[in-house]
Write a structure and sequence with these properties.
Elements lengths: L10 H4 L1 H9 L13 H9 L2 E3 L2 E3 L7 H12 L3 E6 L5 H13 L5 E3 L6 H4 L1 E3 L1 H7 L6 E3 L1 H8 L2 E5 L6 H13 L1 E4 L4 E4 L5 E7 L10 H4 L2 E6 L5 H17 L10 H16 L18 H18 L6 H12 L3 H14 L6 H14 L1
Helix pairs in contact: 2-3, 3-4, 3-5, 11-12, 11-13, 13-14, 14-16, 15-16
């Protein structure tokens, strides 16, 4: 039973009913180490179906073929690398893939400048190491090591944020499917079903470029930003509802017009042009991704629930927009002001209240 006091449940607990329904209805061959067939994994991720009376909700809304390629990669002995702009659901897809395949999405290495080779391989409990010397009990196994032992999936988030020597620790693991522990004279083999799903951010290109040798060990799937307005609105609506259900926001879901305004603003500032293509715009220093739009609306709901009447007002939306758009005080403030005066102000009565609230905050 999932603990409702936990702030963020892993996907396999949050969607346990859906996963159980798909597993119980399984009629296709299931690969070694998997809990369901590739077709069932696809059904779990893309949703819009009912299995044994349980509604399977879509987890990823986008190009279905890309999801099929990602799932098929995990059936082979190659690792999977998901690349895309920030906010294109790389981590979200990675987590749900691991949840569907293994029922465990928690074997994660978070890539940062502080990530070391030990996070990929193993480290030691130094008190036990001093007391007993090198022994299996003193070893602290990494998520990748544990995935190798159990024949499951390890996730490496933001791999391009890791230093080159940390990235290179993966090369021998992905090539040989073995992990050497010289201190114990041990070669730990990977059990069948082991794989790695890594994510990389195109905005971090050049931070720590992946070597050609490491890239060759991955099958690369590029996740695009939502191709059209309606798809992005669907994603935002669905994820805001899912996100807010686990939080005590005490606010109603944003109406259709509110979602449309946020997505319109984000798409225009992201593209550097109005939706009709008639007017060129300056872009902001921030990404203004779909994930940011989801977070912005959740913040608006928090304001409305805590200090308003529970309905997201233009004032709540303006406050959240200000924080999302103006990341660089000098440049973004000017860009945002130009957008307000040259675009939003001229959009008529429906946008007037939001324009006034945004202008007042932007100064």
């Amino acid at each position: 039973m999932a603990d409702k006091n936990v702030q963020r449940l892993p996907a396999e607990e949050l969607y346990q009913r859906e996963l159980d329904a798909l597993i119980s209805a399984e009629a296709e061959p299931v690969p070694t180490g998997w809990r369901m067939s590739p077709r069932s994994v696809l059904a779990y991720l893309t949703g819009n179906a009912k299995v044994k009376g349980v509604e399977i909700t879509p987890k990823y809304m986008g190009n279905k073929r890309l999801v099929e390629i990602a799932i098929a990669t995990l059936v082979t002995d190659r690792a999977l690398l998901l690349i895309g702009e920030p906010g294109t659901a790389k981590s979200w897809l990675s987590e749900h893939l691991a949840a569907a395949v293994n029922g465990d999405s928690t074997k994660v290495v978070q890539g940062t400048a502080g990530t070391t080779e030990e996070h990929i391989r193993y480290s030691w409990n130094y008190a036990m190491l001093i007391a007993k010397g090198p022994c299996p009990e003193a070893m602290v196994k990494s998520p990748v090591y544990r995935a190798m032992e159990t024949g499951s999936i390890a996730r490496v988030e933001e791999i391009s944020r890791c230093a080159s020597e940390v990235q290179d620790a993966l090369i021998s693991i992905l090539s040989e499917k073995r992990l050497s522990v010289p201190e114990l004279g041990l070669e730990a083999p990977a059990a069948k079903g082991f794989s790695v799903i890594a994510t990389a951010n195109t905005r971090d290109k050049g931070v720590n470029d992946m070597s050609a040798a490491l890239k060759r060990r991955f099958n690369i799937v590029v996740l695009p930003t939502p191709s059209d307005m309606e798809t992005e609105m669907d994603i935002v609506r669905t994820r805001v509802a899912q996100l807010s259900s686990g939080l005590d926001l005490n606010a109603r879901q944003p109406d259709e017009g509110t979602v449309e305004k946020v997505v319109t603003i984000f798409r225009e500032l992201r593209a550097g042009a109005t939706l009709d293509g008639r007017q060129k715009l300056k872009t902001t220093s921030g990404v203004l991704s779909t994930a940011e739009a989801i977070s912005l609306l959740a913040n608006s709901m928090a304001l409305a629930g805590s200090f308003g009447d529970g309905r997201v007002s233009d004032g709540d939306l303006a406050a959240a927009l200000q924080g999302a758009v103006v990341k660089d005080e000098d440049n973004d403030k000017v860009t945002w002001k130009e957008y307000l005066e040259n675009v939003m102000k001229k959009r008529g009565h429906e946008w007037l209240s939001l324009y006034r609230a945004c202008r007042e905050l932007n100064g």
